[in-house]
Specification:
The strands form 3 sheets. Strands 6-9-10-3-11-12 form a 6-stranded mixed beta sheet, sandwiched between helices. Strands 2-1-4-5 form a 4-stranded antiparallel beta sheet, covered by helices on one side. The longest helix has about 55 residues, at about 230-285. Helices cover about 65% and strands about 10% of the residues. The protein has about 600 residues and is of the alpha/beta class. The protein has helices at about 15-25, 30-65, 70-120, 120-125, 130-170, 175-180, 185-220, 220-225, 230-285, 290-330, 395-400, 425-430, 445-450, 455-465, 470-475, 490-505, 520-535, 570-575, 580-590; strands at about 350-360, 370-375, 380-385, 410-415, 415, 430-435, 440-445, 485, 510-515, 540-545, 555-560, 565-570.
Length: about 600
């Protein structure tokens, strides 16, 4: 199975900017009334901003020119009132919009998290956790900023540009043309800068994702780094990865900064043309001082939103790529699909059948792990799976619990095709203990009842007593309510808690994948005793490297060369003097 590491950039999501923007805007559909209200406030505030310079023009050309003090006071009062109204409108607008965007982002993040829970194990096996977290946290947060800017920044700035343009043309079309004559050149420059800029920001996002993946991997493996004294190498690699992020950012920003240069040049040229025309027209008496002041003010107001839009270009382009990565996650379909109308799995006996199973990972369809594998586990049997590393033992377990689906063939439990039943009912009837037992941050009680939330204290204590875990719990401050985590328990303690968790869930079929591979002999004896109780009356599959733990198995299957190389009881396989005998004897030679 190919894995995307922090050293490899993720593939581009391939979505167009237009489609991404439309999809982002679609989230506003549930808030139509509020959005209409916000847009009304935006237009109102933009209109007020546009009107205020006209009041200045009126004050100069009418009130001051006529020495009308009373009229000047009235005009200034109206202007002050409009300024206060503008402040109130903007406060209400921002609060309303903030509430909407926060609710949308909450829904998107929840949707992304819920969707991740439905994806197959292959999705998580084939990429670093840090890259998944990057999409769920960083890219969703970036999407929040984008949602805010689309309404609170872009619409007001565009509205102001439109209103000012209308006022300019109504006031004096010739002066208006002098202000707008440079716009076509500006549009051409922006187009060429934007096309390349999108690619640069997409590359920056990929490098950031790589950095998150490396950071997560480094801190997860900090014990190994420190144990081998590899801090210097880890730091040097972190510098390299972070430098790629810095270089990606600089490249994207440098191109985007060209906009500021182009806009400054355009604004300067616009002022030059305005005053050149104005001086000529003033000589002809075509323009008043007030009108010229108003036009200069409008010109400043006209270029101010353009500058704001240019400043937002960096963030918006970056946020579009982030939004695209979020949507790519949401659009990722699990390779495991629950069929429409899937029924409930009903397990009465626990017979398990593998019927001509072929399996290969989705990204390597030509590399078969299992080929034409068939066997039947009778109810109550303990089936041991042994063999070389990578032979397919864990794959068999993963197929039974539907972490993966076979390429060909059928897996049945009590005659029911597991691909035809709901995943919830399947996994409710199967207990799984993995090679690396995992404890969630919380209390011992919460971890023990993870598979059965309504378990009583009596059920919990009974399971712990049977596994010899009762004394350990009583030693903890708080007993069952003691706080534990993945890093506060020893490997053996985690194995015992995981075994008790499985026992409390009371499954019909058990899958024990190397359940005693990393614990001491005394703890192993406790686990083996508990496993014997747990497996009684249940069909069990035990993946084991320590062959001493599966001597009493009803049936041992040696997995090798894509299938079952040998099978039988311990004594039968030793008599064959084959692969099992070699494995068994080699382990005892190591102990000798």
């Amino acid at each position: 199975m190919a894995v995307n590491t922090y050293k490899k950039d993720e593939e581009s999501f391939g979505g167009s900017k237009k489609n991404i923007l439309l999809r982002v805007l679609s989230y506003y559909a549930a808030y139509k009334a509020k959005i209409v209200f916000v847009i009304f406030l935006i237009l109102l505030s933009s209109l007020i901003i546009t009107v205020i310079p006209k009041l200045s023009e009126y004050a100069i050309d009418v009130n001051v020119a006529a020495s009308d003090v009373r009229g000047l006071i009235i005009t200034c009062s109206v202007s002050a009132g409009l300024s206060l109204l503008l402040w109130l409108v903007m406060v209400v607008r921002e609060r309303t919009l903030s509430k909407i965007t926060n609710e949308i982002v909450y829904n998107i993040r929840k949707e992304a998290f819920d969707h991740l829970e439905t994806l197959s194990l292959y999705y998580f096996d084939s990429r670093p956790t840090g890259k998944i977290l990057s999409r769920l946290i960083n890219d969703v947060s970036s999407l929040k900023d984008m949602l805010t800017r689309l309404i609170s920044a872009i619409i007001p700035n565009v509205a102001i540009i439109v209103f000012i343009t209308i006022v300019l043309f109504v006031s004096n079309a010739r002066l208006a043309l002098s202000v707008l004559i440079v716009i076509p050149f500006l549009v051409v420059f922006i187009y060429f800068i934007t096309v390349k800029g999108f690619v640069n920001w997409e590359n920056f996002r990929k490098k950031s994702s790589n950095m998150n993946a490396y950071t997560h991997e480094s801190y997860t493996g900090i014990r190994v780094i420190q144990a081998f004294g590899a801090e210097k190498e880890a730091t040097e690699e972190a510098d390299r990865v972070m430098d790629e992020v810095r270089a990606g950012w600089v490249k994207a920003v440098r191109r985007a900064d060209l906009l500021n240069i182009v806009i400054s040049w355009s604004q300067g040229l616009g002022y030059f043309v305005l005053y050149l025309f104005a001086v000529r027209w003033l000589k002809l008496g075509a323009s008043s001082v007030g009108e010229l002041v108003a036009f200069a003010t409008y010109m400043t107001l006209f270029w101010q939103p353009i500058r704001s839009l240019a400043a937002m270009y960096n963030q918006l382009t970056n946020q579009i790529t982030g939004a695209g990565r979020v949507f790519e996650l949401l659009d990722t379909e699990s390779i495991l699909q629950e069929k429409v109308g899937a029924g409930e799995l009903v397990v009465k006996e626990g017979r398990v059948e593998f019927d001509h199973i072929n399996f290969a990972y989705p990204d390597e369809p030509d590399v078969e792990i299992l080929s034409d594998l068939s066997f039947t586990a009778e109810p109550g049997q303990m089936i041991a799976l042994v063999g070389p590393t990578g032979a397919g033992k864990t794959t068999i377990v993963n197929l039974l619990v539907r972490f993966y689906d076979p390429v060909k063939g059928t897996v049945r439990i009590d005659g029911q095709d597991i691909s035809e039943v709901t995943l919830a009912s399947l996994r409710r009837n199967i207990g799984v203990m993995t090679q690396e037992p995992f404890l969630f941050g919380g209390t011992i009680r919460e971890n023990l009842t993870y598979g059965k939330r309504d378990a009583t204290d009596e059920e919990i204590i009974s399971a712990c007593r049977r596994l010899g875990l009762e004394d350990f719990i009583l030693m903890q401050s708080g007993g069952l309510d003691a706080q534990v985590s993945q890093d506060t328990m020893s490997q053996g303690q985690k194995q015992l808690i995981a075994l008790a968790r499985t026992l409390i869930a009371d499954p019909k079929v058990l899958l024990l994948d190397e359940a005693t591979s990393a614990i001491d002999t005394r703890t192993e004896q406790l686990v083996q005793a508990g496993m014997s109780i747990l497996m009684k009356g249940r069909t069990s599959f035990v993946v084991a490297h320590r062959l001493s733990t599966i001597i009493n198995a009803d049936r041992i299957m040696v997995i090798s060369h894509k299938g079952i190389a040998e099978e039988g009881t311990h004594k039968e396989l030793l008599k064959k003097n084959g692969l099992y005998a070699d494995l068994y004897n080699s382990q005892f030679e190591e102990l000798a």
